[in-house]
Specification:
This protein is α/β, with parallel strands linked by helices. The protein has helices at residues 20-31, 44-61, 75-85, 124-147, 173-192, 211-214, 219-229, 238-249, and strands at residues 11-15, 35-40, 65-69, 94-99, 151-161, 198-205, 260-263. GO terms for molecular function: oxidoreductase activity.
Length: 270
Amino acid sequence: MNTELPFAGLWAIILGGSSGFGFATAEKLASKGMNLAVLFREPSGPAKKATEALAEIAAENNVEILSYNLNVLDNSSRISFIDEFGIPDRLGKVKLLMHSVARGNLKPLVEPKGETGQHSLLTVEDIQMTSYAMGNSLLDWTRDILNAGLFHQDSRIIGLTSEGADKYWDAYAAVSIAKASLQSLTTYMAVEFAPYGLRTNLIQAGITNTAALQRIPGSDKLVEIAETRNPLQRMTVPGDVANVIYLLCTDEAAWINGALLHVDGGEHCR
């Protein structure tokens, strides 16, 4: 094995890779020789920019990167992608499935006292959509890729959660519910998919100033708190998470399964 390119010939499928954690992971894994299928849902302008940036990464690292602008939450889109991607040369080659989908409803449960008709309130339908998008869709993707015979004999399934799954953040209830569900799902997937060679883990990143974070009401306060709270005296950046995902893909990490890994420089300790 080329120790500089340990993943040559293998593939990662990244759900939500146009920016943030997904894009940083694509950069890191490409530098280690891994080919990538990067899926995202963006308007034409940002999609073009992401596709061009990924093409540059592919050329710089002499790897193959396939970009797909599609709705990863749509059953027919998922099936079509797997049919198109699953050519014989890629069977048994998918080393990583990364779930980095950031699509959810950010609404309060109830009107703040003294205010009337000024807020759109969270509905059960909002919760159901967010839970599937940011949590349970991982199960559909994992099962379909497994059934297509695409996973490597020693593969990784990695999801992302946040501190907002356990603590109150303004208007974050639907996402918090989704992430809590994803944490339980990770436990069960770690057990039931293990006989197929899949290790399933969840990363809780520190507060990171991504586009997804900026959509959360009061995110500027979260950023301010993170900058002073972190023991290493800086915020988490997407590259920190990408580095850990790379480590989890190595042979040495094969015994990590069903874990919730804090990738935050110790931020969660305070």
